[in-house]
Amino acid sequence: MYLVAIAWMYVVLMMSVAEAASPNGTLLGAFTTLLFYGALPLGIVLYIMGTPGRKRARRAQEAAQAQAAASSVQPDASGHAAPGVAGEGAGPAADAPVRKEG
């Protein structure tokens, strides 16, 4: 992909030099040739051709962030439910409200 881009810029550069060196040519004409035949179209084509690579990089970054977020949250090593949470075998009393005596 870059070989074609380099070759195209070489051709456009030679066209610009020919424009500037010709008796009827101007430097402004050479600059517009370089800009409108070379830099602008080539920038658009390279941007479009680079879209799949940018998508892959963005998806890889999102996957790495999701993996980092998932690995940072680790469960308690004891295997028991956290205090105040009804787990297996806790029974209905675990959900009952606590009353004041009095």
Topology readout:
Layout: H1 2-21, H2 27-49, H3 51-72
Helix pairs in contact: 1-2
Descriptive report:
With 102 residues, the chain is mainly alpha-helical. It has three helices and no strands. The protein is rod-shaped and about 110 Å long. The termini are far apart. The relative contact order is 0.07.
Number of strands: 0
Shape: rod-shaped
User: Into which percentage range does the β-strand content fall?
Assistant: under 5%
- Helix fraction by DSSP (H/I, runs of at least 4): 55-70%
Low-confidence stretches: none
- Average pLDDT confidence is 84
| Biggest sheet layout | none
What is the SS-derived class? Answer: mainly alpha
Number of helices: 3
Give me the strand/helix succession: HHH
Q: In angstroms, what separates the terminal alpha carbons?
A: 84 Å
Radius of gyration: 34 Å
Main attributes of the structure:
3 helices, 64% helix, rod-shaped, single chain, 0% strand, mainly alpha, 102 residues
Summed up, what is this model?
By secondary structure, this protein is mainly α. Helices cover 64% and strands 0% of the residues.
